[in-house]
Write a structure and sequence with these properties.
2 domains, 144 residues, elongated, 434 Repressor (Amino-terminal Domain)
Amino acid sequence: MSSDYRNIYQIAREASGFTQEKSAELIDISVESLRAYEGGKRTPPDKIVIKMIEIYDARYLAYQHLKTSAEVGQTYLPTIELKDLPTAILRLLKEVNDFITCKDELINITCDGVISEDEKERWNLILKELEDVERAILTIKFVK
């Protein structure tokens, strides 16, 4: 690992303006433990990450922690990129418009309560549009 490696815990701490010493004191852990978390040698337990989120005022850290440290997060949470508010809003509007174009087809496919084999391919494309909307919403939720 290079000496300029910075992981999610270190980035959140630095963005909040805390030193390792002050953070460790506020989180109620040793500086050595914090260094191990920030150096990628150990993954902090959820209760420590919760304290980091609260102290650093970094809600996005919760998402990043689940996405990087838990198999369920790696498997099921969409990857999102932090953006500025105007860009995030424009992305959401674009994704909502894309979804609206397939809204009538969604109704047609699902109105009988069954997705037939013939409808599955189109259904999967509609789900992809919904996932794009979900990702755009999450981006807005974590905008700085």
